[in-house]
Amino acid sequence: MENEFIHLCQPDDCKSCGACCGLYNYADNSRASLARRLRDRTELFRRTVKDAASLARYSEMVKGREDQSRIYEVIYCCEYLGFIDPGRRKAGCLLHPAANGGNDLREVSFYGRELCEGHFCPSYHYLSREEKKALIDIIDDWHLYGLCITDIDLVKEYFRFISDGICRVPRPDLFRRAPFRDIALRYFRWKLEWPYRTDDPKRFGKYAFDGRHYMIPYIDYEALGCAKSRFDKIFLSLSSEFRDGRDVRCAEAMVRDNIGAFVSACLAEEQN
Ligand code: SF4
Ligand code: SF4
Predict the structure, then answer these.
(1) pTM score, two decimals?
(2) Which of 38, 106, 110 to mutate to test the pocket of ligand 2 (most atoms within 8 A of CB)?
């Protein structure tokens, strides 16, 4: 269906996104650390929240127990984000009516019920229907999914290069099966495993944060002794830091090989 609404926040039973609730804004936003936070909050919430007064107590306890260091001071990290399924595969709002027998408790939150309910991030507007569906099919882990679905450049550039290679937009159903899904998943896993990723803890995707300010630290190709890469936007999204032109060439080869593998698989399938 062409106009079908695709819910990026809670797309299916395998994962969800909690980025705009501040999930990745903690100084330590590794998967293990965030999973611990979400698990502990969920248990505390279920154990202690019985009424409005206990909600305030819950909030104080979470803020007292958890490390509140943030990457970007301006973005709030909401203490009501937890796991909303028994298998802990879905990050979500502990105050949402679906998690509280129909009672909407979001009024007590920092943003308030209306903002929480009505917020749709730029990915809803800028990603195409095909790109949204593909991402949902490729990634089944909440931590990686939230990082990638909110990185518009990373997604759009991948689709652009593949589309150039096969002279059309790749069909979204391709991403549900081998070898296409595995190739694409290798690309998106670079969000966590990219060998040229800076270890600067104040960097998030293409942005570098300095307390209350942020900037985009563009790659200085001239200083590296090479021309601007055609994969520049991808490199920025992956928080790349290159030592020299050789690094850039190796990084380009990795991206080129991945896109080439996807394109070759598409063309091979067309010929069969
Ligand atoms: S960042 Fe976007 S997809 Fe993620 S929870 Fe917020 S609105 Fe939903
Ligand atoms: S109260 Fe709002 S910001 Fe907090 S977890 Fe729920 S939806 Fe996210």
Answers:
(1) 0.95
(2) 106
